[in-house]
Design brief:
The chain has 409 residues and is an alpha/beta fold. It has 13 helices and 14 strands. Helix 9 packs across helix 10 and helix 11 runs parallel beside helix 13. It is elongated and about 75 Å long.
Length: 409
C-alpha cells in the first residue's frame, strides 16, 4: 500500500531543541532523545468513513512531532497502518450494499487526498492489515505455542496474564478495563474466557465473511491489536521512540499491543513513550462514526475552505485537549490565515529571529501549538502596526510557519 506525496519542508537557520512531551504510561513529561533516526508509529484509520476532524487533529499532532524532530536535524522513520479488515468496515459495507474491499479502497484514497491537502508528512511505510496477514499468523502461533494464547470455540485469544507488565500503559483498574473493552470492540462477557478483557488474536472464519489461510490456526482473520504489533515489529522491533494515536486508543488498543509484543519477545517496553491526542466534539459529543456527528475534511474542501485554514483551526487547540469543532473555530482560522498572508506579502518587516525561537520553544514544550500561533500573531500585529526594515523577515516567517507548523503562506 502506498502513502501520499510529501510536501517539502523548508530549511531553517540553526536547529530546534529536543521535544519534551507528555507520556501516557508515566503520567508525566519526558524528554525524547532519539538516535539519528527517530522512530514513530501512529495507528491509522479503519476506512469505512474518511477523515473527520478527530482524525485530522490526531494526525496533525504527530505531524508536529515529526517537524520538531526534523528541526533537530534528525531523520524520521514514520510508520502508519490501515485497518482494512474489521467488523465496522464489514458492517458499513453490508449496510451500504457494497463490496467491503471497494469501500476500503475508496475511503483510503480519500484519506490520502485529505492528508495531502493538509500537508501532513507521509509515513515511510503505510501498511494494510490484509497485506500483513502472512506476518500476523506466525506471531499468533508463537503466542499460542508459548502458552500466552488459548483457543475458544475455534477463536484464539491472548491471555493478558502472560505479560507481567500488562496495565502499565493505561494504568486502569480491572473494572475500568472491562467497561472500555465492551465499549471499544471487545467481548468481556463471552463465556469461557480466562479474563474478561482477554482480546482476540485470530477470529475463526464466519459464514459470509472474508477469511484467510491461518496455517495451523485455521481459516479466519486477525484481531485488531496484533495487526499493529506485527507491523511495528517488522519495521522497528522493540523499544521504538513513540507509539501514538487518539486517547481512545490507550485502552484497549495500545495496552494490548504492548502486551502482545512483550509476551512475544520477552522484552520491555514495546514503545519507549506513549503519546495520545485529545478528542474533538461536535454538538457536545465526541465525533464518532457510530454517532454520525462528523465534520469531514473532504466536505470542507469541497465547500472551498482552504486546507491551510483547516490546519490552523486544528493548531489553535493543544493536541492533548478535548475540544469542540464549531463554525467560529473555522472562521477564526480563516481570519488568522488572511492576516498572516497579508503580513508576509510585504517586502520587509520586523525582525523574525525572536519569532523563530519562540515557535521552536513552544513546540518543544509538549507541542504547544497555540503558543506558537500566538507568537506569529504578535509578529503579524507588529507588521500591521509599524512594519520594519528587515527584508529577510517575511521570508523567514513564511519558512518558519511552513517548516514547523505545516502551513503554507
Amino acid at each position: 500500500m502506498h502513502a501520499w506525496p510529501a510536501s517539502e519542508v523548508p530549511a531553517l537557520p540553526g536547529e530546534g531543541r529536543d521535544l519534551r512531551i507528555h507520556d501516557t504510561a508515566t503520567g508525566g513529561r519526558v524528554t525524547l532523545v532519539p538516535g539519528p533516526v527517530a522512530r514513530l508509529y501512529v495507528c491509522g484509520i479503519t476506512p469505512y468513513d474518511a477523515t473527520h476532524m478527530g482524525h485530522a487533529a490526531t494526525y496533525n499532532a504527530f505531524d508536529l512531532v515529526q517537524r520538531v524532530w526534523l528541526d533537530t536535524k534528525r531523520q524520521v522513520h514514520y510508520v502508519q497502518n490501515v485497518t482494512d479488515i474489521d467488523d465496522p468496515l464489514l458492517e458499513r459495507a453490508a449496510a451500504n450494499g457494497e463490496d467491503w474491499e471497494a469501500l476500503a479502497e475508496r475511503e483510503t484514497v480519500l484519506f490520502r487526498e485529505d492528508m495531502t491537502a493538509l500537508r501532513l508528512l507521509p509515513p515511510r511505510q503505510y501498511v494494510g492489515a490484509v497485506e500483513s496477514i502472512p506476518k500476523i499468523v506466525p506471531l499468533v502461533e508463537r503466542l499460542r505455542d508459548a502458552g500466552a494464547a488459548y483457543e475458544l470455540d475455534g477463536d484464539i485469544y491472548f491471555s493478558v496474564a502472560s505479560d507481567a507488565h500488562f496495565g502499565e500503559v493505561s494504568g486502569l483498574d480491572a473494572e475500568a478495563m472491562r467497561l472500555l473493552s465492551a465499549e471499544r470492540g471487545g467481548d468481556p462477557d463471552r463465556p469461557g474466557k480466562k479474563n474478561p478483557v482477554d482480546p482476540m488474536l485470530w477470529m475463526a472464519a464466519r459464514p459470509g465473511e472474508p477469511s484467510w489461510d491461518g496455517a495451523s490456526l485455521g481459516p479466519g482473520r486477525p484481531g485488531w491489536h496484533i495487526e499493529c504489533v506485527a507491523i511495528a515489529l517488522e519495521y522497528f522491533g522493540m523499544g521504538f521512540d513513540v507509539q501514538g494515536g487518539g486517547s481512545d486508543l490507550i485502552f484497549p488498543h495500545h495496552e494490548m499491543g504492548a502486551s502482545h509484543a512483550q509476551a512475544l519477545t520477552g522484552e520491555h517496553p514495546f514503545a519507549k513513550t506513549y503519546v495520545h491526542a485529545g478528542m474533538v466534539a461536535l454538538h457536545g459529543e465526541k465525533m464518532s462514526k457510530s454517532k454520525g456527528n462528523l465534520v469531514f475534511v473532504s466536505a470542507l474542501r469541497r465547500e472551498g475552505v482552504d486546507p491551510a485554514a483547516i490546519r490552523l483551526a486544528l493548531l489553535s487547540h493543544h493536541y492533548r485537549a478535548d475540544w469542540e469543532w464549531t463554525d467560529d473555530v473555522l472562521a477564526e482560522a480563516v481570519e488568522r490565515l488572511g492576516r498572516w498572508r497579508a503580513a508576509v506579502s510585504r517586502p520587509d518587516g520586523p525582525s523574525a529571529d525572536a519569532l523563530l525561537a519562540e515557535v521552536r520553544e513552544a513546540l518543544a514544550d509538549d507541542l504547544d501549538a497555540p503558543a506558537a500561533l500566538a507568537a506569529v500573531d504578535r509578529w503579524a500585529a507588529a507588521q500591521a502596526a509599524d512594519g520594519g526594515t528587515d527584508e529577510g523577515a517575511p521570508g523567514l516567517v513564511s519558512r518558519t510557519v511552513d517548516a514547523l507548523l505545516g502551513v503554507a503562506l
